[in-house]
Structures are given as structure tokens and as C-alpha cells.
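A favour, since you know our C-alpha cells better than I do. Could you add the entry underneath, on a fresh line?
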Amino acid sequence: SGMTIASISMTALESILSQKEVGTLSSPEDIMTKLNDICGILFSLEDVFDDGRRSPPGQR
């Protein structure tokens, strides 16, 4: 799942940068906020992937 998370990160960063160009994000603070949100999402995804590997199918 490492590559998956890395590629999700890159996609998220690209979307932030394109938003920056369009002008929806006005300041570095906005970018940092978005990055923090993305990091939170990525950590959640990582937990999900880890749970999926550790626990047998059908058990949550």
C-alpha cells in the first residue's frame, strides 16, 4: 500500500498546486491547512490498509 499512498499524496499535491494557480488558495496557510487535511486522510487510509492485512476477511 506504500505506493498507493504515495500516489494519492502526489495526486492531492497536484490538485493543491492547480488550485493555487486558479487562485482558490490565496495563502501558504491555506496550502498548509489542505496538506494537514490530506495527511489526516492518508493516515486514515493507512490504518484501513493495515487493518485489512491484519484481520481475516469479514471481521471488523
Remarks:
- The chain has a mean pLDDT of 71.
- The CA atoms of residues 5 and 45 lie 8 Å apart.
- The helical segments are 2-22, 28-54.
